[in-house]
Amino acid sequence: MVSLTEVKAANASLHSTAPPGLVSVVVGGTNGIGKGFLYELAKHTSNPKIYIVGRNEATLGKIIQDLKDVNLTGTYIPILASDLTLVSVVRKTTAQIITQEKKIDLLFLSQGYLTLSGRDESPEGLDRISTIRYYGRMRFILDLLPLLEAAPSPRVVSVLAAGTEGTIYPDDLGLKQPNHHGAIVQTAAAVTYTTLFLEQLAKLHPKVGFCHTHPGIVRTNIFNNAKFNPVFKFFVVWILAPTVMRLISISAEEAGTRQLYVATSPAFVSAAEGASSRTEDALSKLALGTDGKRGSGAYMVGQKCQAVQKQELLQRYRDDGVDKKLWKHTVGELDRILGSGQ
Fold first, then answer.
1. For residue 341, what pLDDT is reported?
2. DSSP conformational letter for 192
3. Nearest residue to 70 via CA among 45, 53, 51, 52
4. What is the four-CA torsion angle of 196, 200, 203, 207, rounded to 10 degrees?
5. DSSP state of 131
6. Dihedral pair phi/psi, residue 71, rounded to 5°
């Protein structure tokens, strides 16, 4: 585990340790954890260039003005995205970035919302919550990989719930069967899919480091926008959140601070960088990857910025070929929506 003091010290040193002019894409940066990360990124880097993806033009404008107050030397570019529960909108969003940029050092993904409802199928044939948590995020990564690989030491961070991987259904990866529509099944699927898919990406694209993180319970206004039953929502927002939740949660600012550490720490290197760490001392400073090996390029990271493991479960999926089946399913669905070969 990494103490908050250590995290803050590492972040404060970025002005001298990180190259100036880092190019970042932050999706989900207009609220909660993503917003906390965005402010920390602007505060601690020199001449940053940050693409900020959001739904509301006025909100983006306000955030950009605030960021200029934090760091006047930064360049902040708003990217409007109407509905990230649609893969087609993700493609339009990445196209805006690709036409403006030549390389990306960091891709940060934290978009999402809460729901306890069953399957909410979009016109694209995917469950909306599954898309914003998983399919859409993987589309962001796949679309932006050429720009990531053009950077010297690129990294991807997807904020979800690493370490809580669970049961998935290889014969129903799209969760279309009625008994697989519940919120618990949906969440376990998105979390497990993310880890397995990032692991495959790290093998295919060893220049890029991939982190799936779990920020813990964070105080945000996500409950205000949650798709809950009105009575239950009132209980959560006005009774549970101000009392019990406040005792066991951390602030969005602290979560953002810790996410910046993960996004920039030399512990979470790409597979290529990990392979070049040949001495025992160098390897000992690298985090354990999702495969249990140090510096393997894909990482599950817990609330305290520590690498977490689920080897028994993940190895069972690997042995059964589920990781490869998931890859085929995911790419197949994304291609189906946008057209084959896209």
1. 47
2. H
3. 45
4. -90
5. I
6. -150, 100
Structural tokens at position 43:
């505060």
Helix H, strand E, coil C: the string for 242-290 is HHHHHHHCEEHHHHHHHHHHHHHCCCCCCHHHHHCCCCHHHHHCCCECC
- Predicted local distance difference test score (pLDDT) of residue 244: 47
Write the single-letter amino acid at 325: K
Per DSSP, helices labelled H in 99-149 are 128-130, 136-148
Q: What is the pLDDT of residue 236?
A: 47
C-alpha span between 286 and 189 (Å, rounded): 28
By the 10 Å C-beta count (0-12 exposed, 13-18 middle, 19+ buried), 279 is classed as exposed
Task: Tell me if 241 sits within 8 A of 223, measured CB to CB.
Answer: yes
Q: How many CB atoms lie within 10 A of CB 281?
A: 7
Q: Which is it for strands 75-80 and 49-54: parallel, antiparallel or unpaired?
A: parallel
How far is Cα 264 from Cα 254, in angstroms, rounded to an integer? 16
Place of tokens 């260039």: 49
Torsions phi, psi for 118 (to 5 deg):
-80, -160
Task: Give, in order, the Cα–Cα distances in Å from 298 to each of 114, 118, 200, 202, 291.
Answer: 26, 31, 9, 6, 8
Q: Are 110 and 34 in contact (CB under 8 A)?
A: yes
> CB atoms < 10 A from the CB of 60, how many?
20
* 197, two tokens: 């898919």
Which ranges of the chain have pLDDT less than 50? 223-224, 228-229, 231-239, 244, 341
Looking at residue 149, the DSSP 8-state letter turns out to be: T
In sequence order, the 6+-apart residues with CB closer than 8 A to the CB of 97 are 25, 51, 79, 104, 144, 147
Residues 6+ apart with CB under 8 A from 295: 269, 271, 273, 274, 275, 277, 283, 286, 287, 289
pLDDT of 221: 60
In this structure, are residues 120 and 71 in contact, taking their beta carbons and an 8 Å threshold? no
pLDDT value at position 114?
62
